[in-house]
UniProtKB/TrEMBL annotation:
Name by which UniProt lists this protein: DUF948 domain-containing protein
Taxonomic lineage of the native organism: Bacteria, Bacillati, Bacillota, Bacilli, Bacillales
Stored InterPro entries: UPF0478
A Pfam family assignment: DUF948
Length: 132
């Protein structure tokens, strides 16, 4: 029985030493858990705030996109006019290119080079006389 009493005293003394040694880390753990509790208490408020700001930003983005879409719809006739003008100009340049490549046009240009030079000199002389 004495040995049992001595064993229980040693076990009690060991548990007392362990609890004294563990007081400081347990105090730190308590502080960390308290700080974690404060952080987690503020978390729902912060999430709600971020969510509301995100929602407002998305609504603003949607409004801007609707505005841009409306303005592009207003400009759509202008784009159609520019497209038609481009197609017409392309058609005219193709026709003019095909006309200038014909042998009749080439001969007409060769035959009128001298005549065009004379007209240009006469225009220069006529303009010089008006300037004086």
């Amino acid at each position: 029985m004495i040995w049992l009493g001595i064993g229980l005293c040693i076990i009690g003394l060991a548990l007392l030493i362990i609890s004294v040694v563990a007081i400081k880390p347990l105090k730190r753990l308590s502080d960390v858990l308290g700080s974690l509790k404060q952080t987690t208490d503020e978390l729902p408020k912060t999430v709600n705030e971020i969510t509301s700001q995100t929602t407002a930003a998305m609504e603003t983005g949607v409004d801007v996109l609707h505005d841009v879409k409306g303005k592009l719809n207003d400009l759509q006739p202008v784009f159609h006019i520019v497209g038609k003008f481009g197609r017409t100009a392309n058609s005219l340049t193709q026709k003019a290119g095909s006309i200038t490549k014909t042998p009749f046009f080439q001969n007409a240009v060769k035959n009128t080079k001298g005549l065009l030079g004379i007209v240009a000199v006469l225009l220069l002389l006529f303009n010089n006389k008006k300037c004086k």
